[in-house]
């Protein structure tokens, strides 16, 4: 963007401080003729932004009238409706002969300044293309002594120190970014060490730091800021390596929690890699990665995300816990989510995303789902695969954990089963983004007795939900042969607990239990 | 970094010229960029980076690297 910077003091040394704006400078104190003369540089077509920076001491010291400024600005706006015009509120020196005794007295510089600032703000509010840079914010943070230099003023009519010029340039760019809606959209948060102190998995829900005093208050205040941000339209998401149930419980039950799970547009809690979680979250919300800002207290996670997803902004948190709440505003919110004004659409945005999330994921994403999705699992079935009979036999011999009946088959026995129309044999092959696992699952359906004879999974792939797919495939094979009611059994061996609940999870009803612990199930398959 | 290195680097950056263009013998006469605005930029950088303030009477006289170095020893 090309900008023209005008002012009533010498601003030339600011030129090198801009990072995003291409800035040209007007002549010394020529802001009024620039605004008023239709042939001036400020009116030229290449200039997209005109910044009029006025020093309050100079302005009021020379009898400046804010009405005259507003009239000139208004006239300029009318002739240049497509340009942005940036003005600043005044922030005069605390030292002034007119105000040393009674700062608030009518006619004092301070009262002039306050009246002028109110008028400027009203003017900016009425004119969409007019922005107001609040100079006082800079003075409040750094103080006049750090921002104003008498030496440079008397040497060359430069009012400010280099630090002030740097901050001024940064604020101008942020203001413009906010006005042009070029901020980022989504703040992705880690949980442990970010939303609360401590480690949930180790300290437990009662041991995390989140309270009304000490370190716990730091995180509570941080959450309050995040809540306010969310209400102003910044989308929040969670990417955390944690046990989903524990996280859900903390959000539901911890009395000091400010944020609720409903405040987050997307949630990934599991054990998948964070870069994958971020990718998924961006896809789920239809956002580009360059719309994301990621906060995590772990240097390793930050480094991983910086390397894997350079488009994602990963701010470096402060070393001290107590600095977090202020850091969040200064270094995260202001730079990455700049706002000139908050619109009704901004406020409605989080609710909109939340509704979408509820529609799209009937089952909570706060499960292993995030981890599973991040694996990009692909499974394949082969039916009655004679060529893999050896592998199939081997699995029946070796698999102990996820095996419902633990029936061992030799190669000839299995060959006979595969060759016989009384059985259907299914082999499951598995692949994910880390590579191929090959054949890792087996199901044998006995058609005559309409029963699942064997169902097993290699321990390498337990806990990824693929057993559900294997059962479904067995059911489909049975149904294809006219089976309407499929039976199944779980025979406990002392080692196969991981498979104990697979049939319940797949909608089977318990029919009876034997004395040895064997449980018999059945499921109506329908037409 | 020695004072000499710091000052030549700072002056080159403030003036926007290559580091090689500034040496211990450089004076304001040698560089077109070292005009009154350039001089102000140097002083601003000194204050910002080295946290040393300069009074305006001395400031006007520091028109060479040698003088800047000599002055730096006094503060």
Structural features:
heterodimer; A: 527 residues; alpha/beta; Rossmann fold; Aminopeptidase; 3 domains; 5-stranded parallel sheet; B: 75 residues; mainly alpha; Non-ribosomal Peptide Synthetase Peptidyl Carrier Protein, Chain A
Summed up, what is this model?
The complex is a heterodimer of chains A (527) and B (75). By secondary structure, chain A is of the alpha/beta class. Chain A is built from 20 helices and 17 strands.
- Tell me, rounded to a whole number, the average pLDDT of chain B: 92
Which residues of chain B form runs of ≥5 with pLDDT under 50? none
Computed CA radius of gyration of chain A, to the nearest angstrom: 34 Å
How large is the count of helical segments of chain B? 4
Helix content of chain B: 55-70%
Walk me through what this model shows.
The complex is a heterodimer of chains A (527) and B (75). Chain A has 527 residues and is of the alpha/beta class. Chain A has 3 domains: 2-179, SGNH hydrolase (Rossmann fold, 3-Layer(aba) Sandwich); 186-373, Rossmann fold; 376-524, Gcn5-related N-acetyltransferase (GNAT) (Aminopeptidase), CATH 3.40.630.30. Chain A contains 20 helices and 17 strands. In chain A, the strands form 4 sheets. A 5-stranded parallel sheet of chain A has the order 2-1-3-4-5. A 5-stranded antiparallel sheet of chain A has the order 10-12-13-14-11, with helices on both faces. In chain A, helix 10 (214-231) runs parallel beside helix 14 and helix 17 (389-398) crosses helix 18 (411-419). Chain A is elongated, with a radius of gyration of 34 Å. With 75 residues, chain B is an all-alpha fold. Chain B has one domain: ACP-like (Non-ribosomal Peptide Synthetase Peptidyl Carrier Protein, Chain A). Chain B is built from 4 helices and no strands. Chain B has helices at residues 3-15, 36-50, 56-59, 65-74. Chain B is globular. Chain A binds chain B through residues 12-13, 16, 149, 151-152, 154-156, 158, 161-163, 165, and chain B through 16, 36-37, 40-41, 43-45, 47-48, 53-56, 59-60.
């Amino acid at each position: 963007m090309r900008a023209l910077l005008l002012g009533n003091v010498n601003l030339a040394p600011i030129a090198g401080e801009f990072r995003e704006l291409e800035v040209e400078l007007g002549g010394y104190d020529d802001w009024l003729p620039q605004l008023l003369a239709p042939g001036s540089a400020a009116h030229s077509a290449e200039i997209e932004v005109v910044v009029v920076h006025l020093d309050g001491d100079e302005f009021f010291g020379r009898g400046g009238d804010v009405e005259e400024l507003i009239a000139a600005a208004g006239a300029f706006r009318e002739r240049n409706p497509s340009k942005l015009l940036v003005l600043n509120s005044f922030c005069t020196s605390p030292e002034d002969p007119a105000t040393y005794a009674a700062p608030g007295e009518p006619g004092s510089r301070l009262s002039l300044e306050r009246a002028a600032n109110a008028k400027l703000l009203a003017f900016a509010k009425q004119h969409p293309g007019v922005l107001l840079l609040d100079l006082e914010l800079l003075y409040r943070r750094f103080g006049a002594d750090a921002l104003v230099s008498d030496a440079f003023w008397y040497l060359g009519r430069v009012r400010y120190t280099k630090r002030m010029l740097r901050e001024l340039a940064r604020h101008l760019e942020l203001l413009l970014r906010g006005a042009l809606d070029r901020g980022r959209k989504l703040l992705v948060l880690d949980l442990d060490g970010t939303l609360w102190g401590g480690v949930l998995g180790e300290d437990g829900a009662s041991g995390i730091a989140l309270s009304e005093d000490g370190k716990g208050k730091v995180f509570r205040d941080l959450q309050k800021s995040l809540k306010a941000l969310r209400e102003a339209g910044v989308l929040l998401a969670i990417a955390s390596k944690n046990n989903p149930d524990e996280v859900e419980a903390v959000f539901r039950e911890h009395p000091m929690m400010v944020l609720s799970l409903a405040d987050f547009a997307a949630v990934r809690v599991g054990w998948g890699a964070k870069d994958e979680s971020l990718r998924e979250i961006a896809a789920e919300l239809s956002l580009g990665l360059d719309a994301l800002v990621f906060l995590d207290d772990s240097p390793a996670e930050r480094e991983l995300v910086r390397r894997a997803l350079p488009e994602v902004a990963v701010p470096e948190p402060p070393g001290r816990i107590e600095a977090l709440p202020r850091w969040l505003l200064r270094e995260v919110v202001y730079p990455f989510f700049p706002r000139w004004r908050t619109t009704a659409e901004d406020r409605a945005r989080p609710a909109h995303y939340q509704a979408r999330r509820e529609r799209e994921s009937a089952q909570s994403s706060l499960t292993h789902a995030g981890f599973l999705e991040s694996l990009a699992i692909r499974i394949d079935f082969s039916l009655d695969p004679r060529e893999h009979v050896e592998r199939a036999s081997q699995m029946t011999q070796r698999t102990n954990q996820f095996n419902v009946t633990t029936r061992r088959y030799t190669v000839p026995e299995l060959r006979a089963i595969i060759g016989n129309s009384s059985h259907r044999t299914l082999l499951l092959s598995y692949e994910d983004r880390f590579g191929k696992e090959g054949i890792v699952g087996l199901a044998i359906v006995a058609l005559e007795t309409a029963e699942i004879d064997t169902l097993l999974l290699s321990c390498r792939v337990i806990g990824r939900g693929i057993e559900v797919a294997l059962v479904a495939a067995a059911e489909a094979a049975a149904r294809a042969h006219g089976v309407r009611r499929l039976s199944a059994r779980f025979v406990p061996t002392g080692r196969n607990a991981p498979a104990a609940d697979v049939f319940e999870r797949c909608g089977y009803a318990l029919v009876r239990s034997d004395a040895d612990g064997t449980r018999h199930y059945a499921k109506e398959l329908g037409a | 970094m020695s004072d000499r290195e710091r000052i030549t680097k700072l002056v080159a950056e403030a003036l926007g010229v290559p580091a090689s263009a500034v040496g211990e013998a450089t004076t304001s006469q040698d560089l077109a960029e070292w005009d009154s605005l350039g001089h102000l930029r140097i002083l601003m950088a000194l204050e910002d980076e080295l946290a040393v303030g300069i009074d305006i009477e001395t400031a006007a006289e520091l028109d060479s690297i040698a003088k800047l170095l000599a002055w730096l020893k006094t503060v």
